[in-house]
Design brief:
Length: 188
């Protein structure tokens, strides 16, 4: 199951108040938020409060039929938690007039843009893999995802030797690049 599909299932579970989905979201994301809060003048209790507030925001959004997540779930939660934490720091006047300084110390907006762009690239690659057809799709998955050796791939795909399998893998990779960049240019 792809990461995008897994996150969609988690959001649907959250909207249904499915305990397993909520727990999975906590397991996958709480540590990152706790580290962020602790590294920015917070305590573990602060981190728990901020994460809980972000989960409430996500819960409310997940119930809305118009809500569409355009980035990874962890990117969304990080962004919400970051904004909530900066707001709380300003309210507690821990930083006072130094809030501009914190923006320099924690340059998250650039990270979010980078992660969103990378997520978009992964989606384009996934679409290109869907269009490449067989046996190229299976051959590339066997080599790059399953990390199989060329000799093993040659046997499984009926090539006479590893060199022939390697040549076919190269041809498939060229096709995949063409599909990817054609879609990439159309998406720009």
């Amino acid at each position: 199951m792809s990461n995008i599909l897994q996150e969609k299932v988690l959001l649907e579970g959250l909207a249904r108040e499915d305990r397993a989905s909520v727990e999975q979201i906590y397991r996958d994301n709480y540590g990152m938020i706790q580290s962020f809060v602790l590294n920015n003048n917070g305590t573990t209790d602060d981190a728990a409060d901020i994460f809980q507030e972000a989960m409430i925001v996500l819960f409310e959004k997940s119930k809305s039929p118009d809500f569409e997540l355009n980035c990874q779930l962890k990117t969304y939660l990080y962004s919400v938690c970051r904004r909530l934490w900066l707001k709380r720091l300003q309210q507690m006047q821990r930083l006072g007039r130094q809030s501009d300084f914190l923006e320099e110390v924690v340059p998250v907006d650039d990270d979010i843009e980078f992660h969103e762009k990378r997520q978009q690239d992964f989606m384009i690659m996934e679409a290109a893999m869907g269009k490449i057809g067989e046996p190229c799709k299976s051959l590339l998955e066997a080599y790059y995802i399953q990390k199989k050796q060329m000799q093993q791939i040659a046997g499984e795909f009926g090539y006479t030797n590893a060199d022939n399998a390697k040549t076919q893998k190269y041809k498939c990779l060229v096709r995949l690049k063409k599909l990817f960049f054609a879609q990439y240019k159309n998406g720009q």
